Amino acid sequence: MISNIFPRPELFWFILGLVLFLLELVMPGFIIFFFGLGAWITALICLIGHPGNNLQIIIFAISSLILLIALRSMIQKKFFNRGSQSEEVEDEFTGKEALATNDFGGIKHGKVEFKGTTWTAESASEIKAGQRVIIIEKNSFKLIVEPKN
């Protein structure tokens, strides 16, 4: 089957792995990545030896599933764990003082300067330009602030 389409099965598995890696970039879930790795492991085995088509598919399936089960949670914790990273970022902003660069408050957004950078800010209270504010929360690229007492 594979050798009928591609005279070199390692090329087929390498290209399949590459396509799966590219799909991982556009599809959420961090699962397809491991099937890409499984395809590359199969390509490597095809390069070293010459397994039959059925064995290639078995190698692909088993290596992909083993990698998925063994490494997915570990890699997600290491690179994609938003909980601890979010807390660290929150600590960097929360409770710190910033300077309002324009008037805003209520439904109007404004700008504040914090650590030499201008940030979009939002406040339920009226804020005047030049007023000191306290950062309550960071929401993406927007700071939620309140006037400093």
Count up the helices. Answer: 5
Distance between the termini: 75 Å
Measured by DSSP, the beta-strand proportion falls in 15-25%
Side-by-side strand order of the widest sheet: 1-2-3-5-4
Mean pLDDT: 85
Which regions have little confidence, pLDDT < 50, spanning 5+ residues?
none
- Look at the helices and sheets and give the structural class: alpha+beta
Total domain modules: 2
Structure description:
The chain has 149 residues and is an alpha+beta fold. The protein folds into two domains: 2-80, no CATH class; 85-147, Nucleic acid-binding proteins (OB fold (Dihydrolipoamide Acetyltransferase, E2P), Beta Barrel), CATH 2.40.50. Helix content is 53%, strand content 19%. It has five helices and five strands, in the order αααααβββββ. A five-stranded mixed beta barrel has the order 1-2-3-5-4. β4 and β5 (142-147) form a beta hairpin. α3 (32-48) crosses α4 (53-80). The radius of gyration is 26 Å and the shape is rod-shaped. The mean pLDDT is 85.
